[in-house]
Structures are given as structure tokens and as C-alpha cells.
Amino acid sequence: MSRVKLSTPTYGWEINHTPYVNEGPEVLIHNGKFNLVYSASGSWTNDYCLGLITASTASDPLNPQSWHKRSEPVFTSGNGVYGPGHAGFTKSPDGNEDWILYHTARYEGAGWIRQIRAQRFVWNADDTPDFGVPADPNQPISVTSGEVGRQRYEVEASTLANGPYAVSEPSASTGRKVGYIDYDNSYVEFTVTVNVFGYYILAARTGNGTSGGSWATHRLSVNGSQPQPFYVANWGMSTAKVWLNQGQNTVRFTKGDHYAEIDCLDVFATE
Asked: How many domains, the chain?
């Protein structure tokens, strides 16, 4: 079967950077409509965005004439989030919600220094997806429906040693964060309690305090294990899958590369 070109860059928002690209296609099918979501403009720019072409599921999807292309992008920069693109889609655990996963620049002008984000989306009356605008990174969003419960541990209630201390941060979950994890012997240690042993996800809301936008890491140790790199987002959730014992566990963050901060730690089972 021969390949067929369904979309090529034509609109101004697709050809504002060279080389011109339509890339990363993903398909959503809803009530008899193909929705092919693709990325356009330069992935290294603030203008990266999502476009859309649609066709009826009753038509021939290999016929370019079956497809209609939107003249405007369907997901663009907003709320201080730049260059959203290259998306994938999933359902909530109970199947009742639709979610988009996408990557963005970590900060304005960050180029290919990017991070992953997720948020819920809904459907328009014409059975096309309504992605809205990127969620404000400093505002909490609801967890997916049907998700397993999670425990939250605030960093200001953890054990702080050899430098770290809590400071005001309006965008933090309780208005405070911990920084100044600056020395080799600095650490932030949480005591995490679970009722059943097994694998859990540690999701720490972290911030990169390094000037110039370089990557930063903490080093993560669970119950005295060998510390491993824990990569830090720019006020986003950084995660690790770890084994926790029944009862109390120690989760320790020490200084890694450059400088990083912590807001809170969420813990939830993998199933």
C-alpha cells in the first residue's frame, strides 16, 4: 500500500519557522469522525502548536480529498506555557475522561529544553476535540477520575538538615517551599507510611533554582538505598517508581546537580 500525504504546511502559523513541518500525528475517533491532531511550526520555538485535520469514518482515509484542515491551530501557548505540541491521548482510569499529554518549553525561549504536561479535554458539538489552553502551571488541576487515592506530604513538615529551610512561595501548595539544598550533606527527609508493601509512585512538585535554565537534579534515597538521580521539572511533578515497606519509610532528597527546590510529595500505589 502506497503512502499518501494528507497535510502539508500552508498557513502562516505553520510556515513561520524553517524547516516547515507538520509532524507527530495522532488520531482520535469520536462519533464517526477521524480527528488527526498534528504538530506544526518549529518544536524549538515558542510558536510550536497543534493543528487538526478531520474526515468522516465513512470516507476513504487514504484519499486526501476526504480530509478538511482547520485554518487555525487548536492548541497554542497560553498561561505562561510556551510551545505546546507533539501530543498523545489517553483515558482516565475509569474511562470517563479524555486527557491530552503534550510537551512544552520549560520556559519562554527554552528551545528543546522541554517538559511533559497533561490536562483534561472535552468535545465540541461537531465531534472535534476542545483542548482549551494549557493549564496554568501554578494552579492545581483535578486528578483523573477513578485514580487511586494519594497521600500528600508537605515539605515544610519534613526533616530539614544542613542548610535547607522553608521560604514563602505563593504558587506552592500551602504557600511555602524548601530551597537551599546546597551542600553535599544537605537533605530533606520525609517519613512516608503505607499500609501494604509494594511499588509506589513518588511524585514531588519540584522547582529548578538554577540560573540560566540548566537541568537540575536531586538525589533520591528510599530507606537508606543508594541515592539515584531525581530529575527536576520547572515547577512541575517529578516522579519515581519505588518499593516501599509496610509501615514507615524514609524518603530522602539530597543535593544533586545544580540547585533545586521542593514544594510537596505525593505518594500513591501503582495500581
From this structure: 2
